Amino acid sequence: MVGGKRRSIFVTLAFLMLMGVAVYFRLWAIHYNISSDDTQLLRRQFDIANKEAMDESAEWRLRYDEEVDRTKKCLQELQAFQESSQKGEVASGVNHKLAILQKENAILLERVETLKRELEEERLKCSSRYMN
Length: 132
Hints:
There is one protein chain. The protein is an all-alpha fold. Keywords: Coiled coil, Membrane, Transmembrane, Transmembrane helix.
């Protein structure tokens, strides 16, 4: 009896150990699948982050290139302005044109005043005709 009871306990213990090992391997397999999914997820996240970084780098490079082009244009305009300012003929020609335009403007202002006076006289004539 004692031998049968021991044997029964031993078989039960062996069965439980076998079930424990089976559960352990099952949990290990689940963990392995999750770990491999995590690895793939991390790889995808890294790829996305890498693409975003490359896009941002390209954007900054484009901005840099635009600023370089803008700076070159400004330098060219500055050089052209310096060359033109060194030539006295251009400056005196501009001053001469400005003087002519100012004279024309004064003449036109006088003409406008004359036309306003004539218009006022005509209005007075018209209003006096209608009153009589």
